[in-house]
Amino acid sequence: MSTLLISTCKKKLSEREFILPISQIIGDNHKILHYRQCTESKISQFDKIIICGTSLKDNFYIKELDTFRKLFYNFQGSILGICSGMHIVCSIFGSEIIENIEIGMVEVKTIKENPLCENVFQAYNIHNYTVGKLDNFTLLARTKTSPQIVKHNSKNIFGMSFHPEVRNETILSNFMLL
């Protein structure tokens, strides 16, 4: 099984904070690419994709949603979108990106049993946006103000608003076992 970590960071330095910790958690047998290096043929070589988050003020990815749609809409493997990655995967399938600032530790409650996490847990959020109009997704967990984990209704695609690399490493391990 091979995994592709995709950077959505505009600045290379941000990758140290948002990509490298995930790389260390998931261990061997993965590759890291910036989304601009990706093609459908490159990504089709992988079983899993993790679209990593980016810094609070780096919202450049929003201007590139058509690029992401072309890359990932027909991908046959599993996808996990983290923070900006959640915005990307949800928007590919018709959801909206809406303003919602959450910074710091939040209590997340699961709504439906899912393979990624336990019932109630603390998670680290650092974002200006969330997703709405989740017609093609099932809401699995939320805070008082926003969806925190979603799963596509028919594909093995997950999105999470928080950063599991900070305090919820088990979630990444669980995704790797799917």
Give the helices and strands, then pairings.
Elements: E1 3-7, H1 15-18, H2 20-26, E2 30-34, H3 40-43, E3 48-51, H4 65-72, E4 78-82, H5 84-92, E5 96-110, E6 120-132, E7 137-142, E8 147-152, E9 157-160, H6 164-167, H7 169-177
Parallel strand pairs: 1-2, 1-3, 3-4, 4-9
Antiparallel strand pairs: 5-6, 5-7, 7-8, 8-9
Helix pairs in contact: 4-5
What can you tell me about this protein's structure?
This protein has a single domain, classed as Rossmann fold, CATH 3.40.50.880. The longest helix is centred in the middle third of the chain and has 9 residues, at 84-92. It has a 9-stranded mixed β-sheet, with helices on both faces. The mean pLDDT is 93. It contains 7 helices and 9 strands. The chain has helices spanning 15-18, 20-26, 40-43, 65-72, 84-92, 164-167, 169-177, and strands at 3-7, 30-34, 48-51, 78-82, 96-110, 120-132, 137-142, 147-152, 157-160. The protein has 178 residues and is of the alpha/beta class. Helix content is 25%, strand content 35%. 39% of the residues are buried. Helix 4 packs across helix 5. The N and C termini lie close together (11 Å). The protein is globular and about 40 Å long.
